[in-house]
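User: Teach me something about this protein's shape.
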Amino acid sequence: MSATKEGIQKRRPAEQRKSGRLSVRVDATTKGMLERAASLEGVSVSAFVLNHAVQVARDIVDEHEHIHLSGQDRDLFLHLLDNPPAPADALRRAAERYREQVQES
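Assistant: First, the predicted structure itself:
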């Protein structure tokens, strides 16, 4: 539940409720470093680890789901979309074989 201005409690929507749990074992040095960094940011260790893990996860997903092109590569890509090269002979033959197989089925 979350507090509102009036102090009345309202239930969070199901997708916002925290029901998952992660547990990580670390050595004393790593724990101390995380505690110090969290303290410097004024947050709990859990909040510190979660915030930074989520940001890194977003960056990794973004890197794998998006194509990043240089300006020159972008221009070439767009040019080829607007002016595609003629299909090679091997592609024409493969397309013809495919059409024949599909018509036979």
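Now, about its shape. The domain at 23-104 is CATH 1.20.5 (Single alpha-helices involved in coiled-coils or other helix-helix interfaces). The chain has four helices and two strands. If you'd like, I can walk through any region in more detail.
User: That's plenty for now, thanks!
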